Structure formats: C-alpha cells, structure tokens
Amino acid sequence: MEAPKNSSGDESENSYADISRSIECKSPAQVVPFPPMSIASHGSTIIRSPSQGLFNESGRSSIEPPSEVAIKLENVHKTYLIGTEGVAALRGVSFIVKKGEFVCILGTSGGGKTTLLNIMGTIDKPTKGHVWIFGSRIKANTRDSFLADLRTKRLAFVFQTFNLIASMTAIENVELPMLLYGKLSPSEIKTRARELLAKVGLEERTDHFPNQLSGGEQQRVTIARALANDPEILLLDEPTGDLDTKNTDIVMKILLDLNREGKTLIMVTHDVSLKSYAHKVVRVMDGKLIRQEEITEEERSSMIERHSEGKAALRTGTNVQLTSDMPRTTYRKPADYPALQPRVS
Ligand SMILES: Nc1ncnc2c1ncn2[C@@H]1O[C@H](COP(=O)(O)OP(=O)(O)OP(=O)(O)O)[C@@H](O)[C@H]1O
Ligand SMILES: [Mg+2]
After folding, report:
1. Whole-prediction pTM
2. Polar residues: which segments have biased composition (predicted)?
3. How far are the Cα atoms of 74, 124, 136 from residue 77, in angstroms, in the given order?
4. Ligand 1, atom 24: closest residue by C-alpha
C-alpha cells in the first residue's frame, strides 16, 4: 500500500495522523515511525540511544505513540559556504527531544549550538541528514509557507539580545505575533497580551518602550511575546546571557513554570549551573554531540533547590557551604571567541 500523502502530495508534510493510519494497515515490522539510529557510548555518562523506546530489542518498531516525540534529528550536518571555503558547523548530530522535556544545550563557543537551535526551529536547513518536527519531515523542498505556519503557531524563539521592536511598547510587542496569526479579535489580543505580561510580572510596565525597561524586564517581554500564540516548543538561545544573577533567577523561574505547564523547552546556555533546570543535557563540541546526560527528577529537584538557595545567599550575603557536587558557573573568556584569539594569545 502506498504511503499516505497530504493534500499537496508532499510526503514531507505527513502528520502523525497520516502515519497512524498507515500503521493500521501494516505489521510492526513494516512500519517504522522514524528510522533507527545508532547507539552511542561515551565513558561513564548515561547515554540513551535516541531511538530507545521506539524500537524493541529485535530492532522492530514497538509502535510507541509517536506523539511523544517533538523533534528528532538524525545525522544532521550543516556546512556554511564562505566563498569557496566550507565551514562545518554541525557534523552528524542525532538526538530526540520529547514533548514536555526541558533540554539544555551546552558547549564551547563556535561549537554549533545556535546552528543546531536554528535547524530545530526551521529557520535554517541542514546540508545533510534528517529533521522531523511533530512527525513532519523537514526537507530542502518543504514549502516556506508550511514552515512559516509552524513558526507562527507551534514554535517560538527567545534570543540573548531581546529583539524587541524599539518603536513599540511592551504590550504592542506582545500583541504582534497574535496580529500576524489573525485568530483572535483586537480586544481578545489586548486582553491576552496583558495576561501574558502579568504572567512574567510586568503588569506595571505594559506601556513602556523597550529603552524604558531594564535588561531583565526586556527579556521577560520577549518571553511573553514568544508565548503569544501558545507555542508547544520554546527555543531559547542564551536567554540569560545578558542578565545578572537576580534576573537570571527570575527568568529561570518563569521557564521552569512554563515547562511544568507542559511546554517543551530547548535552551542553549554557557551557564553550566543552569543545567540543573533541565531533564536532559546535551553537550556540543566542534559540531558534534559529545555527551547526552539524563537528569532524574529527584536529582533535578534537589539541584534546583540548592541552586536557588545559593543564589538567595549570594543576594543576601549569607555564606553557603559549597560542596563539590554543587553546580558552578563557568564564564566565557576572550580566548573562547575564535575571532578574538589573535588579539588575546
Ligand atoms: N551564517 C554563517 N556563515 C558562516 N559560518 C557560520 C555562520 N553561522 C555560524 N557559522 C560558523 O559555524 C560555527 C558554529 O557557529 P554557532 O553560531 O552555531 O556556534 P555557537 O556554539 O552558537 O557559538 P557561541 O557559543 O559563540 O554562540 C562557527 O564556526 C561559526 O563561525
Ligand atoms: Mg550561539
């Protein structure tokens, strides 16, 4: 039987519903929701095969509901061309983000984290390899309108530099994605924008312009704007990179609450101590995924608690006993930036 196709006839946009229909008429051995991926092994860290759960020991599909998976990458490569030179930003990255997961991407500067996030957010396409988002395979010829729709309704970005529109007030910035979506009436948009600003603690700042807000407040407006169309996945590129300890704490609390409400979060950060907020930590170096670490719920809660205690103590000046297993922050040095190396070495 032929694989089901959508109305445009493009197999790249098959939905999970289409896949489920095909499962009804095929045996498990014939139907593989996603192709299998190889099992990696890296030292003593717990490494989970990205395909675990989807395939049983015989390598056949266990027909786990594919709706569990939000994003799947398989052997993703990205090479940027500068003149005739190729810059290999990603060199064979494979992993899965499950729905509701909080994934933290750590790694060296220039390692490929932003490139990876951009590919997961469909604002960039891989040179080689496969990407699935909510079960739809994203191909080189996937229509821009399909990707734009995905980005308007189901994905949202938060960047380190807040990217707010300077000539618009906080509330107008938050209203913008809803106006573009066109689903709500003007009064519904206004009410929702107010609610979102209240959710991030900025109900008193709705009519301020970005330059009348602190960095932490601007980032909270950005988060409210990202939430405007109720996306399922938030992609965050160093969301606390420009913030001080106190504002980092506020933003991380908001993110944690959003994750608890069911949002899938994928966050790139240089701040190693923030990994305690995630369920899964992925380390990227020289375009490769070098380690994937699962954090148990127990470990996560206790680390978050200790992390908050440490921050509170820093603010009040109380001494906390630093134990060897407590998360520590690492900072980037000028030597970490390839462009600055000639000047600092
Ligand atoms: N548009 C581009 N054109 C050419 N090369 C690029 C482009 N974007 C990224 N690169 C290169 O790809 C590599 C990975 O870049 P990327 O921005 O993904 O790294 P990163 O891990 O996010 O770094 P940082 O931590 O400094 O933000 C780098 O060597 C970078 O110079
Ligand atoms: Mg980056």
Report:
1. 0.74
2. 316-327
3. 9, 12, 19
4. 109
